[in-house]
Design a protein that fits this description.
This protein has one domain: Nucleoside Triphosphate Pyrophosphohydrolase. The protein is 27% helix and 31% strand. Belongs to the Nudix hydrolase family. CPSF5 subfamily.
């Protein structure tokens, strides 16, 4: 006897629900308000110093998880991504590192508040954290991150301390995944207010400018247009 084939919900209601999730409403950039606040301290360190710090953090806490948001607005009938610019040459998505035990959604809302609001205690009202649209991994404290786990990695979530306790001859470079970065699609409410530190700029950059422009925006941000290709955009007029 063969197994019974699964029955899929092909109803109009289900199709509407699926299609609704793939449509992103975009409000005009002019419908948002922008302000500034006191500058924040940014860590300036050499690459070697950063590697030492990351190794120390990994030994103490294990895998580092960061979350960032892709926030979209409409300008000239084209989707634009909100990016933070630092020192005229460094572009970042708003977000940051999760605290121990903190969920992706709660951590991202907290980091967005710290980056785009008066402070991290004042959450952005109406912000909806949508689906995760991409993940990147950093093995062996490398500069680059990869959109896949290297084949020689078997324990990406186990801390270095526990590995050393289990096996004093454990191969450090064969197992170590130091960081996981997750990108989430954020859905903005109408008339949102953004307050950015004075040493940063908040820019609206068109998708067509980001596309494969790794030299300017780096290997992750330049892939955002591809990650968003499955979505349809509904340009709303206010």
């Amino acid at each position: 006897m063969g197994e019974e084939a699964p029955v899929f919900d092909t109803s109009e209601e289900n199709a509407t629900r699926i299609n609704h999730g793939s449509v992103v409403d975009l409000y005009p950039l002019s419908s948002y308000y922008f302000g500034s606040r006191d500058a924040v301290r940014v860590k300036d360190e050499m690459i070697a110093d950063r590697v030492v710090r990351l190794k120390s953090d990994y030994a103490a806490h294990g895998l580092r998880t960061c979350v960032e948001a892709v926030l979209l607005v409409e300008l000239f009938k084209h989707p634009h991504v909100l990016l933070l610019q630092y020192r005229n040459s460094i572009f970042k998505l708003p977000g940051g590192r999760l605290r121990p035990g903190e969920s992706d959604v709660d951590g991202l809302k907290r980091k967005l508040a710290s980056k785009l609001s008066v402070n991290e205690n004042v959450l952005l009202p109406g912000l909806e954290v949508g689906e995760c649209i991409g993940k990147w991994w950093r093995p062996n404290f490398e500069t680059l991150m990869y959109p896949f786990l290297p084949p020689n990695v078997k324990h990406p979530k186990v801390s270095l301390v526990s590995m050393l306790v289990k096996d004093s001859c454990f191969n450090y470079s064969s197992f170590l995944v130091q960081e996981c970065l997750k990108l989430f699609l954020g859905r903005l409410a109408l008339h949102q207010q953004f307050v950015v530190p004075k040493n940063f700029k908040l820019l609206a950059v068109p998708l067509c400018q980001l596309h494969e422009n790794e030299k300017t925006y780096g290997p992750i941000i330049s892939q955002i247009p591809k990650l968003l290709s499955k979505f349809s955009f509904n340009m709303l007029e206010i």
